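Repro case for the chain-ordering regression, as requested:
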Amino acid sequence: MLEFVLITVVKAVVVVTVLLLTCAWMTYAERKILARMQSRIGPNVAGWKGLLQPVADLVKLLFKEEVIPGGAQRTLYLLAPLLAFIPAMLPIAMIPFGSKITLFGREINLVIANYDNGLLFILAVASLSVYGIVMAGWSANSKYSLLGGLRSSAQMISYEIGIGMSLIGIVLLAGTLNLVDIVGQQNVWYKWFIFRQPIGFLLYFVCAIAETNRAPFDLPEAESELVAGYFTEYSSMRFGLFFVGEYANMVTVATVATTLFLGGWQGPFLPPVLWFIIKAVAVLFIYIWIRASLPRFRYDQLMKFGWYVVIPLALANILVTALVDLL
Amino acid sequence: MQTETMTVNLGPQHPATHGVLRVVLELDGEVVIKCTPEVGYLHTGIEKTAEAKLYYKVIPMTDRMDYLAPMSNNLGYCLAVEKLLGVEAPPKAQWARVLLTEITRLNSHLVWLGTHALDIGAMSMLLYVFREREDLLTIYEAVSGQRMMSTYFRIGGLTDDLPSDFEPMVRKVIRTFPVRFDEYENILTNNRIWRNRTVGVGVISKEEAIKSGITGPILRAAGVKHDLRKVRPYSSYEKFDFDIPTQEASDCFARYQVRLEEMRQSLRIIQQAIDGMPEGRYLARVPGVVRPTKEEALFQMEAMIYHFKLVTEGFHPPKGEVYVTIESPKGELGYYIVSDGGTMPYRMRVRPPSFVNISALSKLVVGRLLADVIACIGSVDIVLGEVDR
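-- result from build under test --
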């Protein structure tokens, strides 16, 4: 028993550390890639080729004074960033990032929790982060924050439904909610669910971008309209927590997409963990690519798109999948 | 059910108001029910200051009104003073003025496109247009030594002759820009999201636009074929062959199309101007009024005396008043100058296109969403330096 707890704790610490570091250098990668796409240089001062930029940003954020606006709901205001940050860290626990390895004579599963309802857990936890955003928007006593929070809650709840529905096709085909088993069923490349559920993948990706408030669905933080949306009033590391939470959500989406649609850690020649990373990074790259290319949706168009296009399509996808599966 | 409206103060410090415009919005949810643009946060008193400046010393201040189109402002002022004096710039100066104001139009429209697209979320456009703008600013720098506040036009002509590397630079612009415009169109014109955000947004009827005094690309996007370069040609514009693009839809997308087409037409004008650039003097020879060229002032006794007199004392235009309008990138730019026979303007009044155009903002946005306000402010294309001169 002790051994099991110890192994799990070590795995969790390693994975969360890697996740946080990924988030930090994801900001760097995003700025560099955006810069290349926009014919400029990007960060290049801190460290070699600007590689220490995330460290510089972190230090700056830590040493900034924290300002709490007058008239803010103190408790909620201080709690909101944590509520946005913690749910973003949790789903990674369900993601298998490799097969079994043998270390010191013990066999170790490269997944923190091999849980039978893993997919449900991810969806449930992901939907929690909306609370942080709603609280941040309402507690700050600022109109921009309020509008940002309102937009965000409406947007996240609508696209939550889309995400859930787009994944049902996979559950139908795989017959399980256990992510380890789902990966196991995609053992050759043509069995990847992206080929068996192409519409499901597209819908999932679109909804996931909306769910993580990224361009072109970055309305809650549309800087040209709402300054910074729900976290307009935040400063110092609490602002940083929202930021890290957002990037952690992106990483989660990328890893879930890898696990469910791209065959997870499986691939020839290279070690499984590397394959996993390559696939996840490719998905993240598409995220940044989209941000460089597309203008932003308007709020009502976004909601229309969610309810009139995404959800009917997802329903049709479920229906077709179920029929094909039955035959 | 009783609902309350919310008053949101957009600006003066706001990333999408293009400076320090303040817009007081009354919102019902996210729908705008009242919109009041408030100006005056960038008041510089340029009109008043002009009353205490010799005529030629006003030119640098005109740069600072519409700082994205300095040459157009120079041109308007110089034409007004020249009309007051009865002086006409020599052909080479007129051609160069046309060429450079068209480059200014490109400059202004490019920055407009970039910031408008940035407001709507297409972030990369801003960087692309600034890459192109670099070529234009290099031309500014070559002719005047300044990248933004050029002060290149003088009363009676130009400050200095065009530099020898001027022509290859302009040819480069003519060669590379059409390709760039095609790229912009690829990114935006048929982009579904771009169309969703701009088509049918910020519509103003033709009659309403004329009644509000709107000019420039907004008026042309409403279907009125009004361009002072054709209607009342100045500085030899009548000798150039170009079209006035118009659209009927009168929404943000129509304005985008009009401006993009205007840039292509500007390139046509630049091409003709550089091909047919006449030889000769770049400053009119009117002793006692127009300053002699630098070379003359250095080597001729009389020229040096005139130079000294003009720099220290200035000239005395006849009593009277003039009003001259030109087509600046943003619309009809007018200079009204009253002279009492002294060496300084008795009164100068500028009719800035941005100021008149932004005053119609509420007609564009009432009944629409908050996000449309941003798109509308962007599509009106204001420069606050000009609004609050």
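Ordering looks correct now. The radius of gyration of chain B is 22 Å.
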